[in-house]
Structures are given as C-alpha cells and as structure tokens.
Design goal:
Strand content: 15-25%
Number of domains: 1
Length: 129
C-alpha cells in the first residue's frame, strides 16, 4: 500500500494551526452528546474531528458511578485507528475558556500527529530544512 505524501503547502497548513478554529467543532460535538440517547454502557461518544487515521472523540460519562467531583464527565480522546490505541486525552468539567483552549490544543496536536504519519520515514516530505 502506498502512503500519500504532503506537499510543502499542506505540511505548512498542518503544522501551523489556530486552536480557536477547533472550538466550534468541540461545541458541536458537545451539543450532539446532549441530544444523544443514553447508552447501556454509560458513555456517549461523538466525533469532533478526523485527520486520516487519527480521530478526536468527545465522550460523556453518563452513569451515576462515573459521576464524581474527581472524575471529569467529558473526555476528549485522540485515537489512532492505525494502531488501535488512544494517543492522548484530557478530561473536562465545564468547557470554560481554559478547558476549551486545552481541548483545542489537543486537536491541533492530533492534526500534527496525523500529518507526521503522512510525512513518512523522511519526516519532512522530502523538503529541505
């Protein structure tokens, strides 16, 4: 299977991101969770963004045993479909400005991870430093 390579323009766009641009995506996923029916397993999940094989998910813990002042009810997770593992995550309580900024930064990191996997073994898509 051949891997696609990023052009220098695509690479620049993937590596220099504005976290504020992802805040509407986070809030959209939050609203999706609010209208989603409760699941038997006690979690509801919505996709916030997907970059190749890297997906960013927002999960809400809905069962009473999950609800605690110590455990965040919402989790933003960076998941790699290629490796089948969670690469990073952060918990959120209220999505106030600091939490929203942290969540947006996590999405930027996810996009960078996805871009790095497309760059291939050279790590720079053949561009000169």
């Amino acid at each position: 299977m051949t891997q696609s390579r990023l052009s220098s323009r695509e690479c620049s766009h993937a590596l220099f991101l504005d976290p504020d641009s992802f805040e509407p995506d986070i809030l959209r996923a939050y609203v999706q969770l609010a209208v989603m029916p409760d699941q038997a397993n006690g979690v509801k999940t919505a996709t916030v963004a997907r970059f190749g094989s890297v997906e960013v998910r927002l999960t809400e813990l809905t069962q009473p045993e999950h609800k605690s002042r110590c455990i965040a009810p919402f989790w933003l997770e960076v998941y790699s479909h290629a490796s089948g593992t969670t690469l990073d995550s952060c918990g959120c309580f209220t999505f106030d400005e600091p939490e929203l900024a942290t969540a947006a930064d996590l999405i930027c990191d996810a996009k960078r991870i996805a871009a790095a996997t497309l760059l291939g073994p050279q790590g720079n898509a053949g561009m000169r430093p």
